[in-house]
From TrEMBL:
It comes from Actinomadura parmotrematis. This is DUF732 domain-containing protein. Residues 1-21 form the signal peptide. It comes from the Bacteria. Keywords: Signal.
Length: 146
């Protein structure tokens, strides 16, 4: 047999054998495995938030001189000078407003128990209550303190 005849015979056999090989058999194709990714997170404590509170204080000093209630006529003393020289520290605006309120309470018959509570709430120390009340009486309402 010459080479052509052998090639033709091989090709004629190869086609039916390929078709035959496919009959009754299962062919499986390999598929790549699904990729799995593992993510690990570590729980970390969150730092507490920092809270900053800023208090703004404005101190305005004015001097109030009332000539009608001035016990030291001819002297340069003021209401503020008197309570500061007694060791009491308070803003002059608060002190004069509170003095007027204390006098009004005394004039309506309130006792020192009520007005002492007002002074303590405003920041006057307990050991300064009598002194501050006396200074209020001298400057704002002579003779009204119970």
């Amino acid at each position: 047999m010459d080479a052509r005849a052998r090639l033709a015979a091989a090709l004629s056999l190869a086609l039916p054998l390929g078709a035959l090989a496919a009959c009754g058999t299962t062919t499986q194709q390999a598929t790549p495995a699904a990729k799995t990714m593992t993510v690990t997170t570590t729980a970390r404590a969150k730092p507490a938030p920092t809270v900053t509170k800023t208090k703004v204080r404005t101190h305005v000093r004015t001097r109030v001189v009332t000539e009608e209630a001035d016990p030291n006529a001819g002297s340069a003393s003021t209401f503020e000078d008197d309570y500061e020289s007694a060791g009491i520290t308070a803003p002059i605006g608060w002190a004069t407003d509170t003095a007027a309120e204390v006098c009004a309470d005394w004039q309506t018959g309130e006792g020192t128990g009520t007005t002492d509570a007002l002074l303590l709430d405003g920041g006057i120390y307990a050991n300064h209550l009598r002194t501050f009340s006396d200074i209020i009486e001298i400057w704002f309402c002579p003779g009204d303190q119970p």
